[in-house]
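Researcher: For the annotation table, I need structure tokens for Sugar ABC transporter permease. Please keep the output clean. Sequence:
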Amino acid sequence: MTGARRIRKAYGVRGAPYLFLLPAAVLFALFFALPIGYAMWLSLHKVQVKGLGLGAGARDEVWAGLENYTDAVSDSELLAGALRVLGYGAIVVPVMLGLALLFALMLDTERVRFAPVTRLAIFLPYAIPGVVAAMLWGFLYLPDVSPFYFVLVRLGLPQPDLLDGGPLFVALSNIAVWGGTGFNMIVIYTSLRAIPAEVYEAAKLDGATPLQTALRIKIPMVVPSLVLTFFFSIIATLQVFSEPTTLKPLTNSVSTTWSPLMKVYQDAFGKGDIHSAAATAVIIALVTLVLSFGFLRAANSRTRQEAAR
């Protein structure tokens, strides 16, 4: 009897971690794994219309195989949207991470004043929802209501239309940079604060200037944080949706398929073709996964090479 109790007690102790993980596993399955599986199932089917498509049984869901995927890959609108997102990301990612690193280094200096207030001011735009931020900047871009254009008119300066043509990329990028710099700055600044004070003291004894300390000590030691923020920025860039969607009613330069996710939305809710939308969404997810995995693998291999040196 004592041996049986010991076995039950040992089994209960070993099973306790799985019991604690059960709620997270259930939530993961319901809100992550199950939707992904359902999207993949939809992407492999299509609706077959019989006759005029009227009456019961006139529209059936049949197996399509990879037909939706081949149609999505050969879609010129999806390719054009992907190219636009690449141009958008070429502006957003370097500018946003460069500003975040600059602000973090400035806040980490000894002479900075009102550091808590400054950190909050830089981080505050990140707390504003993306749709609200896009709407706010959208009205600031409109010549009829923007105070910036009023000042330009008074000064006799040219008034560029930021919602038309090439400047549209700058307008959209500005919204993303304004909203995302604060978060990345906090991540980098936290890594800077984790550097031991003895490192800075040794640099001072060696006669290093603040600029040399930043370039030769601080930046190399926060490379993991830079890699992390770059990784998150790439994912956010590939999933851009709220900014162009919010600005679309304000300009004709933003089409319903300006970005790949906007095309998914248009196919699903504009055309009512959820099967093609699911296939496009799966392709976007796979591209994001491949790019993220490749970047992390390259970053890890470089870190190992530097550690071996």
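Researcher: And a one-line annotation?
Model: Residues 2-43 form the longest helix (42 residues).
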